[in-house]
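Run log, item B.
One chain of 459 residues. Sequence copied directly from the ordering sheet:
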Amino acid sequence: MAQPDSFGRYRVVRRLGSGSFATVWLAHDDLLDTPVAVKVLAENWAHQLDVQQRFLEEARILRHADSAWLVRVHDLDVLPDDRPFMVMTYADQGSVADLVSRGPLPLDQALRLLTEIGQGVTALHRHGIIHRDIKPSNVLLQSSPVGQKVLVADLGFAKSIDHASGFTAAAGTPGYMSPEQGSPGGDIDVRADVYALGAVAYELVTGRRPPGAPVKVPPRRLRPGLPRALNDLIMSALSEDRSARPPGAKEFTDRVRAIRMDPHLRTRVPWALRYRGSLLRSAAGVLAAAVLLGAAQASAGRPELAFTEVQDATGAVSVPVPRVWASQLQANGWSPRELGLVGGHEPGLLAATDTARWKSSGAPSAGVFVGLLDRSGSTPRLESVIDSGPCPGAPQRRSYSDAHWGGEVWQWDRCPDGSSFSAAAVRPHEGGTTVYVEVRSPWPRPDLVDRVIGGTRLT
């Protein structure tokens, strides 16, 4: 439909999205001077009384539940063509689906989200309601004075627990829908929502939507180091036998909260997973951002390597890389949020013999990755960036300092095929942007790592 000027007193700004039954618009309440979301029944359903009734029932449920963890309904009205619309809380930070699309989340962030989602679902259960369609896109995020706030939304499939027996139609989204929801006329209860919470948890910690039931691959297999208690909770929630699941959203949420309170919890994304999603997006083909600026010799007694300078697509970062390693270049940047750090899409590049195999633990390629982290504060210690390396054993740790940079380097020398992997976090002595660096070499080369760091420049 064309963008209208207003819905009642609510001035339309732009469309936020649309589904099978409704369209959601960003509007402004000029009377109260605040942004709102307006959900309007789609024109093709205007004369379907059962669909209208479902739409109105969603508004009533949200209004009666009135929880801090649910989208709130502020107004309900009807357009001149008899289509109902509801005025709701505007979630200005998108949805959980937007977060997980970038890859698995740092564990503390995933557990916080699960706790708050669980509280929203618990509020519904206390009001006698089964959601029936919990998934990342139905969990919205809103700015608040204390940080990001979770709001469970879209109750179009919600039903009263008192009428849960013998639903006439299957409802839900494959992957998040419990097995009993797939059968029309099935007898469901709150444990259908527990299954969906388990599916959302699976996706938050692995970056992958779980397969249909039965789920045979536990999340710990996809994310080594995941706490066993969390792995077991997710798998029990995803059980085909609902009697094996936690009995309700409150019990599920209480167990998530207990795991999060473990003082020994390792929260960051393992190295092997953090390049999933949009960590590095290459342009179509290899970018012609590599500019030959000269060559240099490695230290005496080492294999000699000629270097070339490569730049990211914005020209913000230039890095010296051994010429033989720079056969492939991905230069369109990265997102520090993949490491659980602050930052949006930042300048960065990967130059390697085979960029597709850069994260492989079996036969990795040689190369260099450099990405900008933040633009203020002190240099982060590597513990805040990387919780484990791609190679066995503890790394050799050393401080790094030259005329321009200061920071630290970790190096692993027992990598597959005898290769060596180094990670560094450095910052200019005069302050400014912190840079994260990774170097993978066929042999241990601290001098080569230092050459890469020392020659990196920001413009």
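Observations after the first pass:
- Residues 275-302 have pLDDT under 50 and may be disordered.
- The chain has three domains: 6-88, 96-260, 271-458.
Flagged for discussion on Thursday.
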